[in-house]
Amino acid sequence: MALRQIRYDGDDILRKKCKEVKEMSERTLTLIQDMFDTMYDADGVGLAAPQVGVLKRIVVIDVDGETPYVLVNPVIVEKEGQQTGDEGCLSLPGKVAVVTRPNRVVCKCLNADMEEVTIEGEGLLARAICHEVDHLEGILYKDVASEPLRDVEYPEDSEGEGGSR
Ligand code: ZN
Fold first, then answer.
1. Cα 46 to ligand 1 centre (Å)
2. Active site residues
């Protein structure tokens, strides 16, 4: 297990557009594994490569702790409905804000074997896909939030709920 340093808001790399992955390499497979390790270690539900300083179109997501997704070169091809709720980000720790996202999305991408896959997500999975794909364009959720960021408030004796992306 290897953890990578998470980049925080204010770091220029979070504002750059990421490059497509043309072929899978050992180095990129290691990056993907490290991204999962880093995401789980930080109690996140999603992480995009630029958040660990790599400008590649790679995202990892696991919204329920048992369904890991690797999205290489993801493109959202369908959006349906809308959901409005709190969203957070591992690059803006301790903050949340209300963001409206589609309630369902269909995303075409490649998996770690560079095979074409289609991922359909509803609810939190749809929100996570939108949030992470935005990262690949240099967009942070605070840019699309409908209100200013506020501090996370966890009830005492609780680990909190939801997750950061
Ligand atoms: Zn994020």
1. 7
2. 132
Instruction: Identify which of 142, 160, 141 has the alpha carbon closest to the alpha carbon of residue 43.
Output: 160
> Where in the chain are the domains?
12-151
Q: How far is the CA of 102 from the centre of ligand 1 (A)?
A: 17
Residue 71 corresponds to which tokens in the numbers above?
């999205």
The H or E element spanning position 35 is helix 26-41
Question: Which value, in Å, is the radius of gyration of the alpha carbons in the chain?
Answer: 15
Quote the Cα angle for 96-72-101, to 5°.
35
- The pTM (predicted TM-score) of the whole model is 0.92
Distance 47 CA to ligand 1 centre (A): 6
Compute the mean pLDDT over every residue in the chain, rounded to the nearest whole number. Answer: 95
Instruction: Report the C-alpha gap between 153 and 83 in whole angstroms.
Output: 21
Fold category of 12-151 in CATH: Peptide Deformylase (3.90.45)
d(CA 67, CA 92): 24
Over 60: is that where the pLDDT of 141 sits? yes
Q: Given this model, what pLDDT does residue 162 score? A: 57
Instruction: Report how far ligand 1's centroid is from the alpha carbon of 160 (Å).
Output: 18
Instruction: Kindly state the DSSP code that residue 116 receives in the 8-state scheme.
Output: E
